[in-house]
Amino acid sequence: MIGTGVFTSLGFQLAVVQNTWTILLLWTFGGIMALLGALVYAELGTHFRRTGGDYIFLSETIHPLVGYLYAWVSLVVGFSAPIAIAAMAMNNYLSPVLGETQLPGLFFLVLIPAVHIFSVSSSAKFQNGMTILKIAFVLALIGIGLAFGSNSTSPALNFSDSWKDEILLPGFAVSLIYVFYAYTGWNSAAYIIEEVDQPKKNLPKALIGATLLVMVIYVLLQLVLLKHASVSQLTGQVQVADIAFGNLFGAQGAVWVSLFIGVQLIATISGYAWVGPRVTYAMAKDYKLWRPLAKVNGQNIPVRAIVLNTGISLVLFVSGSFEQIMLYAGFILQLMSTVTVYSSLKIKKQEGFKTPFKPLPQLIYLGFSIALMGYLLVDRPKESLAGIGILLLGWALYAFDKKITQ
User: Fold this and answer.
1) Which of 214, 284, 309, 330: disulfide with 181, CB 3.0–4.6 Å?
2) CA atoms within 13 A on the CB side of 115
3) Among 287, 306, 312, which residue's Cα sits nearest to residue 80?
4) Using CA atoms, how far apart are residues 39 and 184, in angstroms rounded to an integer?
5) Cα(231)–Cα(101) distance, integer angstroms
6) Domain boundaries, the chain
7) Three-state DSSP state, 287
8) CA 167 to chain CA centroid, nearest Å
9) Angle CA 397–398–402, to nearest 5
């Protein structure tokens, strides 16, 4: 989960809401929503126990069309867009070291998926190692940021009561899209359920434990960034961590922070490159149009799906703007996760983990998520309609595709 969003979203949020309580509320609320979703996905994953995530859940509980649409969205947006965004952010953060060039992001966008074609164990070792490095680095930033006083002449911290007005603004809802995007990945373990040992025990532990940890990290990191930079410095900027720690450490220290942020984004690219093709693979086993992508290598890894996912990420990387891709990806992913949470209500006899206090968590998630998407549709119609257009294209493909009979 820890990747592009937490290091890039604050600048866009400060353009519309500037009270510290508002910012912290955004990240706390986003974490609570992710936690509710994690509880539901733990239930769905342990019930179906088949790799493919939402594609399996939606196909089995609602209709094969809905599962097909999710797999289509995952291919063209769900996993390829976060990879492209992470590669873009990597270029931004490495620019103080390497200059203005697209080569670092391009290099890792292509190289990292290749790591995942050898074996599941090698993928796990690589991902675990990069994740440990990432968490250690982020915790170090938080510890240093909280321990040292601010060198900023006008830090962005603002604990007034203006938050009461800000949370009613449409911009608050739009800002939540950035936050929800930053939490993207809370459901990833459910996509590879067949590769998880003791899934009934370990899947809920992974989903719920990781979401809680990340929520604490995200809230503390925003507090640190606001403490060490001004609103004018951060507003509209992508490299907010670079700016904040540049004020604290000076120009040379900021270079090192930028370098480490760029490097830790390798783990983000790796996670999506590992999990995403499994959804495409699950659909390819069922439909003729995608059948060639169902081919696996000797280690049972869907290499062709990995290559296609990487190719789409590459197209997004060279063609779109950072903010636009984040918004349209955020809208469509929120829509699909909302439908998946609804699908859990269709399960009558649960075989595995059960969501505590069901159906209350589902209803809370659905209510807030639908309201959020409504705000975004009104405030950012271009990006929202682009996401809906992707769904309609997937619907058209489904009409011409044929399900493989076993």
Assistant:
1) 330
2) 23
3) 312
4) 15
5) 28
6) 4-400
7) strand
8) 23
9) 110
pLDDT in tens, the chain (406 residues): 887 788 888 998 999 999 999 999 999 999 999 899 888 988 888 888 777 778 889 999 999 999 999 889 988 888 888 899 889 889 888 888 888 888 999 999 999 998 888 887 888 888 888 889 889 989 999 999 999 998 888 999 999 999 999 998 878 887 888 898 788 877 777 666 666 777 778 888 888 888 999 999 999 999 999 999 999 999 988 888 889 998 988 888 888 888 888 888 888 899 888 888 888 888 899 999 999 999 888 888 889 999 999 999 999 898 867 777 777 777 888 898 899 999 999 988 878 888 889 999 999 999 988 988 888 888 788 888 888 898 999 999 999 999 886 5
- The Cα-based distances of 383 to 169, 171, 295, 378 in angstroms read 19, 15, 34, 10
47's CB contacts (< 8 A; 6+ apart) are 347, 350, 351, 352
Backbone angles phi, psi at 287, to 5 degrees: -130, 140
The answer to whether domain 4-400 has CATH 1.20.1740.10 is: yes
Nearest in space to 36 (alpha carbons), one of 355, 371, 345, 373: 355
- d(CA 21, CA 161) in angstroms, rounded, equals 8
Q: Which two tokens stand for residue 45?
A: 């994953």
Count of Cβ atoms closer than 10 Å to residue 292 Cβ: 11
Give dist(CA 28, CA 277) in Å, integer. Answer: 30
